[in-house]
Every structure is written in C-alpha cells, then in structure tokens.
Write a structure and sequence with these properties.
This protein has 425 residues and is α+β, with helices and mostly antiparallel strands. It is built from 15 helices and twelve strands. It binds a DNA duplex (10 and 15 nucleotides) through helix 3, helix 5, strand 4, helix 10 and helix 11.
Length: 425
DNA sequence: ACAATGGTCC
DNA sequence: ACTCGGACCATTGTA
C-alpha cells in the first residue's frame, strides 16, 4: 500500500503493526506497575476549595434563576433557560429530546443573560471535581502512586488508558494546571515530558507527498502561519494571531476529513466561509486532496484502509446510500492512516526507548517511562541523569523512523507535570 | 442496567 | 442537508 513512500526516501523499519503491538505489551505492563506519584494532599485541598466555590456559584445561579434546581441536569437547565427565560436565539442546536445546553451552545447566549457565565464556570469546576479531584486520591497505592491500565483495542491503533484514564488529565484553565501540578516526581527525581511536534501533520505530509507541506516542515516553518497565508492570501509574516488560529483549525480539519459544516461549527463561522477556506486549502495542497481521494477510493475498492505498518481498519459502510454514513466512513478513511501511523511511530519509539533505558539502568537505576499520551511520553529520572536521559529520549523519538520530513520532539523537565521547562538539547 | 448528555484529553 | 478523527468517565433520568 505505502510502497511509494520508499521513493520519497522514507525508510520503514522492517516490522509489522502486529509485531509492534506484541512488543509494546510488556512495556505497557511495566509502566502500569510502576505508576506515577500523586500529591494527594494537594488534590484533597483543591477539592475542598472547589467544593466551596461550587456552593457559592450554585447559590448565585439559583438566585438568577429565581428558583432552586439541579444544575447538573441538562433537562432542568433547558427548562430554565429556554422555557422560563426564552433564551432561544435560533442558532441553538437540538438534541434528541430538546435543545442542547452544551457549553458551545451556551456561549452563544452569553450576552443575553447574566446566568450563562456562572453556569459555564460551574460546569468547568464540577467536571474537574467529580472526574479528577474526588476520584484520583482514592486510587493511589501505599506509596501514593497511581496505576492506570493501557489498552490496545482501538479502531486506529492508538493506545487507551482507563481506571483511571491518565490520557485526559486537564491542562487548560487555572484549576487544570493545578491538577497537573499534583502529578509529581518522586523525591530526588524529575519528570521529563517529551512530545512530538505536529506528528500527524508530518505523517500526512509524507503519506500525501504534499510538496508545499513537506517544504514547510523541511524548512522548519510555522505550519499554521503558512497555512494562514495560503487561505487568507497574505504574506506569512503579515498573518494575525486570529488568522493563525483559524488556520490551525483548518489543519486539524484536514486530519479529520473536514466538511464545510464541521469546520463552520468549530470556528463558529458561516458554512460558505468554511467552504471557501477548504477550497483555498486544497488549491494550495493538491497532494492532500489527492491523498483524500486515494483513501476514499481504496476504501471503496478494498473495503479497508491501513497504516504504514499495515494496521487495517475495515470500512464496510463506505458504499452506504445513506450519505451521512458513507461520509462518516470517508472521513475515517482519511483519518485512520494518519492517526494510526502516528500512533505506531510513538509505540516504536517506546519499544526502542525501553531497551535503551534498560541498558542505562543495568549498573545503576536512572530512569523509567511512566505515561504515554498519544504523542507524548512522561519519564521519571533521577536528578543526576536528567540531561543524559533527556538526550536519549529526544534522539530515540526523532530517529525511530526516517520520514520524508524531520521529526521533532520537544523535551521538557520539571518537578511535576504542571510546570515544566523546555530543555535545549 | 442503560441511554442520553456533557466534558476532559490528544 | 451535511452535525469533523480517536478515546474514557460522570451525572441524570428512565426502565
């Protein structure tokens, strides 16, 4: 399938998706067993603070609503907002049973009623309280370490994490940051985080052999700014931060097989505008356009698509006469090879790194992998070996496979997961 | 026990 | 009219 990659100078390690998954197994079991240390006191203290704040906001919301109701109930919330206050402005999405009260929809009403803001704040805090602050401290072992379980049963080849899920620990917002800070290195040790920079876009640049995108990565350009220049028809150095933000969404959209509707929703713009962005994007990136058509064609012809190491995803409904079902599988046809190949690259790097750390630990213990979060690794390392290990991690990740563009991993170090400093290597 | 809704991450 | 890719989990409300 991907034999054409060789002609681009890409060298694939001689290994199959199945072998990667077999070899990553023991690595994952070891990471599960080791676990990650949590500052339980800090989480408990944050939980207390947050409970207090929630009680306050709850009262405020009830006062504005003129009655007491269960803020956690979308049903009761819709009753208040849409029946009592008639805040429907014509652009609120419907759910199966009524009008949505999802945050995205409520934001459209922020200017219309004072109750919206505290509701959004309540939602954020109560989410973090009930999903992270309350449960996590109950799950630590006698050494205050938290042990997740990694799974491999996904449709794209990504790993999963559950009981607890450590792949969706908050990062946004003030409280989110504080929660990350409660993931700490043991005494005398540091955490190293290493994440691939735009690995999926680099992968698709190669899968699609897209001239413009390849050039951008080879020259280490700001890919989102460059895309902004293309779709807004301006110079890269004249791109505004707003234009760049839009372009970033467009670039993500590519990976998801974007439709004008989907793009318009995530950018809160008109569909016509979104369609125009997409059209300009595909004009600038004919390689990507061809790639999309090739994957859809393959799914039609063969019934599946696959990653660079041969992980297959069946797409049995690609010929459905229900356009929405067929369209959904077309998007999967576009996304799966990208997301899946990127996942395989990180898994390969983990297999490599495990061996190197084993060697390093032979004489004296120095470092161990703790977590994997799709394009990121968290490693715990003794203070004295930080720079040595950081270098090994970065090189392992960047050299694990030769793509048609450079692979870049950013390495950071800190005493906890919430405040890490970039390491120049 | 289960579906619906909503929200966190990459 | 089309309701963007991949996961896990909490809460509500009904069965």
């Amino acid at each position: 399938m991907w034999s054409h990659l060789k002609e681009q100078g890409i060298e694939l390690p001689k290994i199959t998706s199945k072998e990667i998954n077999e070899q990553i197994g023991p690595v994952l079991r070891r990471m599960e067993k080791i676990g990650v240390e949590i500052d339980v006191k800090s989480l408990n203290s944050l939980a207390k603070d947050t409970e207090g704040k929630l009680r306050k906001i709850e009262k405020q919301i009830w006062k504005l609503a003129g009655e007491e109701f269960n803020i956690n109930s979308p049903m009761q919330m819709a009753e208040i907002l849409y029946k009592k206050f008639k805040l429907l402005n014509g652009e609120i999405k419907k759910t199966k049973n009524g009008y949505s009260t999802a945050a995205n929809e409520l934001k459209k009403l922020e200017g219309k009623h004072k109750i919206i803001k505290p509701i959004l704040e309540y939602r954020e805090l109560s989410k973090l309280l009930s999903t992270y602050l309350k449960p996590l401290p109950l799950l630590v072992d006698e050494k205050s370490r938290l042990h997740t379980s990694y799974g491999q049963d996904t449709t794209t080849g990504r790993l999963t994490s559950n009981e607890p899920n450590l792949q969706n620990i908050p990062i946004k917002g003030e409280l989110g940051q504080k929660i990350r800070k409660a993931f700490v290195a043991s005494k005398g040790m540091k955490l190293i985080s290493a994440d691939y920079s735009q690995i999926e876009l680099r992968v698709v640049a190669c899968l699609a052999n897209d001239k413009v995108m390849k050039e951008a990565f080879i020259q280490h350009q700001d890919i989102h700014a460059k895309t902004a220049a293309e779709i807004f028809d301006t110079k890269t150095n004249k791109v505004t931060s707003d234009q760049r933000r839009v372009a970033k969404t467009v670039n993500f959209g590519v990976l998801y097989g974007m439709s004008p509707y989907g793009l318009s929703q995530s950018l809160s713009i008109e569909q016509e505008k979104a369609a125009d962005f997409i059209s300009r994007y595909f004009t600038a990136h004919s390689g990507i356009k061809d790639y999309c058509n090739r994957m859809i064609g393959k799914a039609h012809d063969e019934g599946y698509v696959e990653t660079i190491f041969g992980f297959k995803r069946m797409l049995p409904n690609i010929d459905s006469h229900y356009r929405n079902i067929a369209n959904a599988e077309e998007r999967m046809a576009i996304n799966t090879p990208v997301q899946g190949s990127a996942a395989e690259i990180l898994k390969l790097a983990m297999i490599d790194l495990e061996k190197k750390l084993d060697d390093l630990n032979k004489n004296k213990f120095k470092a161990q992998m703790l977590l994997t979060i799709h394009d990121e690794l968290i490693i715990e390392v003794v203070d004295s070996a930080v720079s040595e290990v950081a270098k090994i991690v970065k090189e392992t990740m960047e050299q694990v496979i030769k793509l048609c563009v450079p692979i870049v991993a950013e390495v950071k170090v800190g005493n906890n997961w919430g405040e890490m400093k970039v390491l120049k290597i």
